[in-house]
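Researcher: I'm preparing a figure for a lab meeting and need a structural model of a single chain. I don't have an experimental structure, so a prediction will have to do for now. The sequence is pasted below. Please return the structure as tokens so I can convert it later.
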Amino acid sequence: MKLLTLIFLLTPMSSQALWTFNVINDGSPVLYSDLLFPISYTHSTCQFQAAVINNGSADDVIIINTAGCTSNNHFIVIDGYRYPLSDTVEVNFYSDLHLFTETSNLNNCTSASGIIPTDPPRILLNGLSIEFKADSDALVFTDGNNLYFKYDSINGDIVCDNGVEFIDPREIIFLGGFE
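Model: Understood. Here is the structure written out token by token.
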């Protein structure tokens, strides 16, 4: 199984803050750099676009999503539940806001702790605002033909209608048996 992972580590600061990303191919890091905000992703092009610091100056960069670029294979994962995103999804990452510019079936969300916090840093999707943990990794990764945007909310217990329990394929022990 080939697994390509883009790991974005969030630094919630000003709009010039950096995200560090690692591209991991079959468990081995193949690329590492710092990205400047804003960072955008468009399903129609299957590309992340950003600027990087290169020898003291900013250069534009495109990271191509080589997996997960067919219809309806993009998902947002919040607190361990997966929700499908449409094939028109676009995401703009800022230091304190991740704006999903589409409609989805992410609605009727509840929290066992009683309230869904909406302060920055936050996700904004379909009019729903959810504060996510600033000290945890904001994670984007592919598995097979699926692309995941994975978040943990600040209270860790948000569930919305149509959520499917998500088991991270990278955390399954002995996935391929003993080798």
